[in-house]
Amino acid sequence: MHDPDPPFRPIRRSDGYLPLEDYGLIGDGAAAALVGVDGAIDWMCVPRFDAEPLFCGLLDHARGGSFTVASANLLEGRQRYQPDTGILETELRCDTGVVQLTDAMVLRSGADLRDDAPADRAELVRSAVVIEGHVRLNVDVSPRGSAEVRPVLSGLEIRAKSQPGLRLHLRGNRPMTGLRGTYDLAQGERLELVLSWGRFHRHHRFDALSMLHDTASAWRSWLAGCSYDGPQQPLVRRASITLKLCDHWVSGSVVAAPTSSIPAPIGGIRNWDYRYVWIRDAAYAVFALRRIGFHGEADAFLGWVLDAFERSDRPRIMYNLDGDPVPDETQDTDLEGYRRSAPVRWGNGATDQRQHDVYGEILDCADQWLRAGGEIQPVLWSSLAGLADAAGRSWEEPDQGIWEVRSQGRAFTYSAALCQVALDRAASIGERFALPGPVGTWRATAAHIRESIMKRSWDDRAQTLSAHLDGGGALDASLLALPLRQVVPADHPRMVATTAAVADRLNAGDGLLYRYLHDESPDGLPGDEGAFVLCSFWLVDNLTLQGRIEEAERLYDSLCARASTLGLFSEQIDPSTGAFMGNFPQAFSHIGVIASGVNLARAKADPR
Fold this sequence. Notes:
Elements: E1 9-10, E2 23-27, E3 32-36, E4 40-45, E5 53-55, E6 66-71, E7 74-81, E8 88-94, E9 97-107, E10 120-142, E11 147-152, E12 155-160, E13 168-172, E14 180-186, E15 190-197, H1 208-223, H2 233-245, E16 277-278, H3 279-290, H4 295-311, E17 318-319, E18 330-332, E19 344-346, H5 357-371, H6 378-394, H7 413-433, H8 439-456, E20 458-459, E21 464-465, H9 493-505, E22 507-509, E23 512-513, E24 531-532, H10 533-545, H11 549-560, E25 572-573, E26 580-581, H12 587-605
Antiparallel strand pairs: 1-7, 2-3, 3-4, 4-5, 4-6, 6-10, 7-8, 8-9, 9-10, 10-14, 10-15, 11-12, 12-13, 13-15, 16-17, 18-19, 20-21, 22-23, 24-25, 25-26
């Protein structure tokens, strides 16, 4: 549960690894890192989200490397964010005292996070101060694959073997002779370290506290634009910051998660690289961000989607940060994986899958872009109109679906529904702006698809819409998204029945939902998985839209209570233990926190 002032707790490890919920996220709009409650940075990709990790202990505690600042004889710790910022504080208690460690990937002085401009300094600040007793502090900087170090006038020059082209420079307020050191500090004494990459700051004034102050000011100035006033307000504000930490500020894109290959479940092979940008995330993210006051981020993401589509040779379900194709999927056999869950993967093999929902995702983004005052040039409109035509041809054909199954394709109901969205939005755009195209045909085909979904995917015996367009009664939680994309009214009797069926048959316990059941809908991979966090927020939205406000709010509160003490969510949750699973933090889960809160707040303000 999100707790801005949590109690100390013992350091827990399984197989040598911290639980995911014992990590905090820091970042600067270009890159990100995870800081453990034990003082170790076990994951850090610089100079950008999708770079090779500099520290990768998250995926191999023995060989992956980490940047540790921790007290000797560490007993327990706790973490919290400085209010309204992305600056993380970790307090470490040992048998002789307590040290407070402040971590941030710092921002430029005066940075305006509303601008689509670089705000990062390409620097990590780790500032430790003893707040009780005296502490022996151990420092260990161990990049993956080891490193060469050379003393320079202002600190240490580091060459990591895993990234030979990356120039690293480590400075401190105390003498350093190598990448490992021990410092005995009394109460009030400080150790300040700054790790820089990409450029040196050898002759700049060393003032870590000033950099932290400037970074806090930038974050608080940005969050002042948050207009949310509804249920679970502190958690929604924190979710906004987490989404911003997953945002590539210059391009406007948002990565699905800043990590790769965290398994769901432990010991399984469902380990994927999420450090890329999924088109389908855009429409959901834009809905969430725009409704809490962050119009700039929403517009930037929409613009990025349209730019990426316009530049590509065909519509893709995902792109890298620059809007280019995602690298081919490879396996890294040198790393054992989080909690020995191999394989570790870089790149993503789903990038070339056939997923028809991409037509609707792109055209929905175009529609939102225009409604926000954007413009579309004739060449781009011609391509968008071609997408609508493709949706009209493809909606009954098999694809891999929203969940990117690695089995033979099926005609998924969700994919057909997003083809309907593509045609509906194209017709709407064409009508509003008098653009060329077969608007009448698009409108008629959209209506036909909607009618076909309601008839063909309906299973009278199971009393539900089905995961597949040909019916059969197999369930998929993505059906809950149909009302959210305005394909089916939430209060339509068949949608109400489907909501009940999903809540019952995909129930993982205590409000959690599975995406689908593997025995009903094989996905080409062995093993099961956990409960998918976003799906439960979709259930909240359906209950809200059906007027079941009290029931929706109870479910929403129970889901929010599953956040880590820092207010973070993973992709999935283990229903039996409540432990986090899958890549972390997961942008989609935090979008759910925001969107469901907004919907509830609006419904409670106007309970008609």
